[in-house]
Write a structure and sequence with these properties.
Layout: E1 2-5, H1 13-21, E2 24-27, E3 41-46, E4 49-54, E5 57-58, E6 70-71, H2 77-89, H3 95-106, H4 113-127, E7 133-136, H5 137-140, H6 147-156, E8 161-164, H7 174-179, E9 183-186, H8 208-215, H9 219-224
Parallel strand pairs: 1-2, 1-8, 2-7, 8-9
Antiparallel strand pairs: 3-4, 5-6
Helix pairs in contact: 2-3, 3-8
Length: 228
């Protein structure tokens, strides 16, 4: 089973729900960069509420492909992000289990946001008990547009099943998948609730690190256990 998604920075639980089910994850890194998305930012929960963790980038533009967008290393973005993480989770049950990895990773001077995202995704997958096989669409040089390209990617990696996000129903041509003899499964993710820091009011759609710091090795079961 194969799934495809643009790279995201410290993604939310639904992102990893797909990765935990798939055998191959193709990072769609050679499409236009989208502003105000999750490629270079995500949210965590502090006592004051949700806050953004943002990696500053240079020259972000839909005319630039994701794998061409550079990180602005003139700013101490890593230090700023780590300070927020410590503020939000230093008293969480599993802070010591994961903070060291984040500190080591975010203290480095990464050149491209796509490479940083892929590194985080792969290692967090390991924390969730899944060895994620990551392939980059830019490395394969696969042609086609929209549904045709998705099918070509599946064929390239010899995948007979494509795991799509729920929004795929709105834009994919299912007849083309049928003709290509590729089965399509649409994600059906129900966001779980779990213990969070600071208040009883649960806030969903936080970065996966919110779950990891609060629930540790139970995180994978929590992600997978709230489906219909």
């Amino acid at each position: 089973m194969l799934t495809i998604h643009q790279p995201e920075f410290l993604p939310y639980l639904g992102f990893f729900d797909r990765l935990l089910e798939a055998d191959i994850f193709v990072v769609l890194d050679d499409v236009g960069y989208e502003k105000n998305g999750f490629i270079n930012r995500n949210r965590i929960k502090l006592e004051s509420g949700p806050v953004w963790l943002t990696v500053p980038v240079l020259g972000r533009s839909p005319n630039k492909k994701i794998n061409e967008v550079l990180i602005d290393n003139s700013k101490d973005w890593g230090g700023s992000i780590l300070d927020k993480i410590k503020k939000g989770y230093r008293d969480s049950p599993y802070f010591d289990d994961y903070y060291g990895f984040l500190e080591e990773t975010l203290s480095k001077k990464w050149e491209k946001i796509a490479d940083l995202d892929a590194h985080l995704i792969k290692n967090i997958g390991g924390f969730l008990g899944k060895k994620i096989e990551i392939e980059k669409s830019s490395s394969a040089e696969i042609g086609g547009k929209k549904t045709e390209r998705l099918i070509n990617i599946c064929k390239h990696y010899k995948a007979d099943t494509y795991l799509s996000g729920p929004a795929g129903k709105d834009y994919m041509d299912m007849e083309l998948f049928k003709k290509a003899d590729i089965k399509v499964i649409f994600q059906d993710f129900m966001h779980p609730e779990y213990p969070q820091q600071f208040s009883e009011a649960f806030i969903k759609n936080m970065s996966v690190i919110d779950l990891l710091f609060n629930c540790g090795k139970s995180s994978s079961d929590i992600i997978k256990g709230k489906k219909e």
